[in-house]
Design goal:
This protein is an alpha/beta fold. The protein has eleven helices and six strands. α2 links the parallel β2 and β3.
Length: 219
């Protein structure tokens, strides 16, 4: 039966600033769901941290985000880190098969953030596996986008029964304030971030006031 399944690679692109246990948990949820359809066999998971050129406020250097991701995934036998995207001098569009959260689907409706042809290709040619996060739902997000609605059969909604809404933004805030983030991040990531003093008041001001690169690149 498994030999007849379609091989599938799950790719997550994002800031990973820093990578959290929740980021890794999403891969496991997505893999379980795709296997449960009986049609797919997940052969690999890939974490692709975004380039520094993305210009998001508080984004620490890509070399550190890649290093933390590798530390976090050192015990995984199927998820790896790919640094091609992070090595690029500028932000690059991602038109590939993706594993995402439903807040990512809502981003498709932000004016100027995504090109219409990229949304069409992502949803139509590749597909999206979306894990519900908080009050957002894949069905609702797809309903509000004509492009996503056209390709709704390629959008796989995964319900997370054991909810974990860890926010990297809140993790950075806790680190800046000297508060514990144990059990939110792998111990190796906590140690690395502390040793390099990555998250401080100064680091959070990086790119302050700068527009996200997708908005200026496509404007």
């Amino acid at each position: 039966m498994a030999a007849c399944r379609i091989p599938l690679v799950l790719l997550a692109c994002g800031s990973f600033n820093p990578i959290t246990n929740q980021h890794m948990r999403l891969f496991e949820l997505a893999r379980d769901h795709m296997h449960s359809t009986g049609n797919y066999q997940v052969v690999k998971g890939i974490v692709s941290p975004v380039s520094d050129g993305y210009a998001k406020q508080g984004l620490v250097a890509a070399e550190h985000r890649v290093a933390m991701a590798r530390l976090a995934l050192q015990t995984s036998d199927w998820i790896t880190v790919d640094q091609w995207e992070s090595d690029q001098p500028d932000w690059t569009e991602t038109v590939v098969t993706m594993r995402c959260g439903t807040n990512f689907l809502d981003n498709f409706r932000v004016p100027g953030l995504w090109r219409a042809e990229d949304v069409e290709e992502l949803a139509g040619a590749f597909g999206l596996v979306c894990v519900s996060r908080g009050a957002l739902g894949a069905e609702r997000a797809a309903h509000k986008s004509d492009a996503l609605w056209r390709h709704r059969r390629n959008i796989f909604a995964v319900r997370e029964w054991v909810r974990n809404e860890t926010s990297a933004t809140e993790v950075r805030r806790a680190l800046r304030r000297g508060l514990s983030v144990k059990y939110l991040l792998p111990d190796a990531v906590i140690e690395y971030a502390g040793r390099h003093r990555l998250y401080t008041d100064a680091s959070e001001q990086r790119n302050w006031g700068a527009p996200l690169r997708p908005l200026t690149k496509q404007g």
